[in-house]
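Researcher: I'd like a candidate sequence for this fold, 366 residues long. If you have to choose between options at a position, lean toward the conservative one.
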């Protein structure tokens, strides 16, 4: 069956990025009417799904946890590029876009993707098992980066409003990139075994699995198509962003909802890949995807927008409001209690999903 479906799958995943990129070139910097927006949305979704496939091909070639890192960094590049381009076009009205999108990414990954992965794994295998050492290290780094980058600006006094002064912004950006670099080194070099899937007895699973890895040529092709798909997602999402902003304004929703929509969009590949891993009883891979993406979101976005603020006009608001700080603190506390036992039941997955639902509800009705 696999050999019958593989040629069709390859044709589809090859055609989607190419056609999406062609549509991007045809619609770049043009006002899009309603029917064309719908067409762009369809090709954008196809490019996202194709990106998932090609990221998994690359991941199969390089193995875990490198594969999770490839997808996390690739998705974050989408997010950073989209944020910077929208901020460049948006002026003062996009001052809080980076904060809203990064915080949305943290809540979606640490509660949505993590909770859904645990729920799927625990329902299918009774309990979801993972490595507390690697997961705990990632979670601690997320808590630190989120606090330094998005909580402290609310309380600093060098500038009015929830924003850093230039020296403070340089410090936050430097801390973000250094800690993310240390995490990547820990993940890939010194303590790689802490991020590999485990059995209920604690033994490391062989994730080289049953299929032969793709050839160098297939891997290189997938890398090129992955890049093409990601570029298409960024460009097409930027093309329909005015429609998203107009829809949010017409519905009377807060402007921060735009950041939530962007985060939901760019994290779709992560979500699909994480659920697939949980179905295979590789919940650690799911958590690598979720927490790795949260870390990349903060560790790469904050330095990028700090650098971009040199030429972008208007303020850069990074500080969270009281309700979001409460949700972040609760996420850190609940996540710590989830990680420590090294295994989780459907209850823990449900708790994290409830936190995500609370965040989304407050985003719509502050």
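Model: Candidate sequence:
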């Amino acid at each position: 069956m696999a050999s019958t479906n593989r040629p069709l799958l390859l044709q589809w995943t090859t055609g989607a990025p190419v056609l999406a990129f062609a549509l991007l070139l045809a619609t770049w910097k043009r006002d899009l009417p309603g029917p064309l927006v719908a067409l762009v949305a369809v090709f954008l979704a196809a490019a996202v799904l194709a990106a998932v496939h090609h990221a998994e091909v690359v991941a199969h070639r390089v193995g875990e946890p490198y594969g999770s890192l490839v997808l996390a960094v690739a998705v974050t590049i989408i997010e950073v590029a989209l944020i910077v381009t929208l901020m460049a076009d948006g002026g003062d009205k996009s001052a809080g876009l980076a904060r809203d999108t990064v915080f949305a990414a943290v809540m979606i990954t640490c509660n949505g993707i993590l909770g859904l992965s645990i729920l799927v794994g625990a329902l299918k295998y009774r309990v979801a098992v993972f490595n507390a050492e690697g997961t705990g290290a990632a979670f601690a780094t997320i808590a630190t980066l989120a606090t330094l980058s998005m909580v402290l600006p609310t309380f600093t006094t060098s500038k009015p409003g929830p924003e850093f002064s230039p020296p403070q912004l340089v410090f936050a950006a430097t801390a973000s990139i250094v800690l993310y670099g240390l995490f990547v080194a820990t993940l890939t070099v010194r303590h790689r075994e802490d991020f590999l899937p485990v059995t209920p007895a604690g033994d490391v699973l062989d994730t080289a699995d049953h299929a032969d890895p793709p050839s160098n040529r297939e891997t290189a092709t997938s890398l090129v198509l992955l890049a093409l798909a990601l570029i298409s997602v960024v460009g097409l999402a930027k093309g329909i962003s005015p429609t998203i902003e107009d829809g949010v304004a017409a519905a009377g929703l807060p402007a921060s909802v735009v950041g939530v929509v962007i985060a939901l969009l760019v994290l779709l590949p992560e979500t699909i890949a994480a659920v697939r891993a949980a179905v295979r009883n590789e919940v650690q891979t799911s958590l690598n995807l979720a927490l790795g993406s949260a870390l990349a979101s903060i560790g790469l976005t904050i330095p990028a927008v700090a650098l971009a603020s040199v030429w972008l006009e208007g303020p850069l608001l990074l500080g969270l409001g009281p309700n979001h700080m409460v949700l972040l603190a609760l996420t850190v506390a609940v996540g710590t209690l989830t990680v420590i036992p090294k295994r989780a039941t459907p209850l823990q997955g449900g708790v994290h999903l409830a936190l995500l639902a609370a965040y989304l509800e407050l985003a719509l009705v502050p």
